[in-house]
Design a protein that fits this description.
Helix content: 40-55%
Order of helices and strands: EHEHEEEHHHHHEEHEEHEH
CATH topology of the largest domain: inorganic pyrophosphatase (n-terminal core)
CATH architecture of the largest domain: Alpha-Beta Complex
CATH class of the largest domain: Alpha Beta
Radius of gyration: 19 Å
Strand content: 15-25%
Distance between the termini: 44 Å
Structural class: alpha/beta
CATH superfamily of the largest domain: inorganic pyrophosphatase (n-terminal core)
Strand order of the largest sheet: 2-1-3-4-5
Shape: globular
Number of helices: 10
Number of domains: 2
Number of strands: 10
Length: about 300
């Protein structure tokens, strides 16, 4: 039995890919199960609940007895569960320029720079003529739309659009579904520290640890204005807990399509200004257009290493 999983506490893309690729493997003759470590993101939970799709079980219940592990939407050691041994990973399907693919010695690697890992999984169904279930089609379509910010960000490709059209032809979705999905993830009822902890990305560059927070919501300027004092406290606690050298957040306005970077220390601001060609006014820097975190990390590496 093959375990298909994503990075720890996955977003909609990782959760959808795990669900759908396990289905693809089972339909093509390989016994597989989809499971995750941690808790899936709020947006993923919304889609699973709305369409009564069973939630994914705990990956730790399957790791020991699996014959191999497939990572989807994941290729960085710091992002995966410490129960996932790199030597046990037999395949990686991801879309990140910054990755640790070379550190998985037994894995077949597919890393292609499309907008969503769900596009790569959808292409497997499409190429083999395997019909995805309604549940897989809904999850994969939703993930492509979410990851590309409804096809508005820089990493969107024609492959993403083609697979979204292919999937959408197989399902019926409620009117205004995408707006509803985006609005739902913009409602923050949980403590802010939990929200940021759930989507914390860590990357080590030249021996320095970056803690990078990302939030994709409607109304980021209002959110920032209302929460700056508490955000500074949260950043300080996360930086200390993770022993990070640098910490910042990138807030993406999914309605007006811009980034708002938040940072509270001069050293990190200097790094970001050099790497991203932005300018901070106080603790904020607004950038026109959408720059995803997976695009920010390679720019940091290029600037910081250089």
């Amino acid at each position: 039995m093959i375990l298909v999983t994503a990075y720890e506490s996955p977003d909609l893309d990782g959760s959808a890919c795990a669900y759908a690729y396990a289905e693809f493997l089972n339909k093509t003759g390989t016994s597989a199960v989809a499971a995750i470590s941690g808790k899936m993101h709020k947006e993923a939970g919304f889609v699973f609940d709305k369409f009564n799709i069973p939630k994914l079980p705990n990956a730790e219940d399957f790791v020991a007895n699996s014959n191999g592990i497939v990572l989807v939407d994941a290729s960085e050691l710091l992002a995966i569960s410490n129960k996932t041994l790199p030597e046990k990973v037999i395949e990686i399907i991801d879309h990140r320029r910054a990755n640790d693919a070379a550190k998985f010695p037994n894995a077949k690697i597919q890393i292609e720079l499309v907008g969503s890992a769900a596009t790569l999984i959808s292409e497997r169904f499409y190429a083999k003529g395997v019909e995805p279930s309604k549940e897989s089609a809904i999850l994969l379509y939703s993930a492509i739309v979410s990851n590309t910010i409804n096809f508005k960000n820089n990493i969107t490709t024609n492959r993403d659009r083609k697979m979204a059209d292919y999937l959408k032809s197989k399902i019926e979705l409620p009117k205004n579904y995408v707006s509803e999905m985006f609005a739902f993830k913009s409602i923050i009822n949980e403590p802010l520290e939990e929200v940021f902890d759930a989507d914390l990305a860590k990357v080590r560059i030249n021996g320095k640890l970056f803690a990078i927070l990302q939030l994709e919501i409607i109304g980021v300027e209002e959110f920032a204005k209302s929460n700056m004092p508490v955000l500074e406290e949260i950043f300080g606690r996360i930086k200390k807990k993770e022993s990070a050298n640098y910490i910042f957040a990138t807030l993406i306005d999914i309605e007006k399509y811009f980034n708002l970077f938040i940072c509270f220390d001069a050293e990190t601001k200097n790094v970001l200004e050099n790497a991203l060609k932005i300018k901070f006014i106080g603790n904020l820097s607004k950038r026109k257009g959408i720059l995803m975190r997976k695009e920010v990390i390679p720019k940091l590496k290029e600037s910081f290493v250089g």
